[in-house]
Amino acid sequence: METCGGDPVKAAKTLQDANIKAKVKIVGFDVDHEGQQQLKKVAEAGEGTYTTVSNQSELQSEIVEKWKPSIGQLVWTQGVTLVDTYNAMKNMNDIYNPLYQLSTNEKIRILDAVRFLMSEKLITEETRAQVSELANQMDQIRQEEFKKIKDEKETEREAARKEIEEKVVAWKAKWQ
C-alpha cells in the first residue's frame, strides 16, 4: 500500500513522459492482493514489469538470474578501450603541444628582436647576452611547468583508467 502521501503511478508516468527511457521493474515480496494491484499499476505506468515472490529463493531467481548480464555483455565489456586511451592522450597533446609551441615561439621572437637590436647597434653585447639568457630561462621554466602539469594529468588519467578496469574486472567476476 502506498504510505508516503504521493502518487507512485503518476510519478512512474511522469518518468516515462520525460523520455528518460527507464523501465520500472518492481518485485513484490510478501505483498497482499491490494498492494499487488497498486504495484502492477505503477509498473505498467512506468512501462516495466511487476513480479511477486514469496521466498528468498524466488527473490534470488527473480533478481539475480533475470538481471544477470549475458555472456555477450560479459565478453564485450572491456572497460577503457585502446581507442578511449588514445583519444584521452590525443586530447592532452592537443592542449600541451600548442602551449609548448607558443612558448618556443615567444623565445624565438625575443631572441630575434635582441639580434636585430644588436645588429642596429641599439644594445650592447652584454645586454644581448643577458636578455637572451633570460629568454632561455623563461622558456625553460614554462616548459618544465607545462611538462609537470601534463605528467600530473597523465597520472590522473592512468589512475582513473586503472580504477575503471578494476571495477570492470570485479563486475565480471561477480557474474561469472
UniProtKB/TrEMBL annotation:
Keyword list, A-Z: Coiled coil
Coiled-coil regions listed in the entry: 124-170
Source species, domain of life: Bacteria
InterPro entries, A to Z: vWFA_dom_sf (IPR036465)
Coiled coil among keywords: yes
Annotated protein name in UniProt: Uncharacterized protein
Species of provenance: Peribacillus deserti
Origin organism lineage: Bacteria, Bacillati, Bacillota, Bacilli, Bacillales
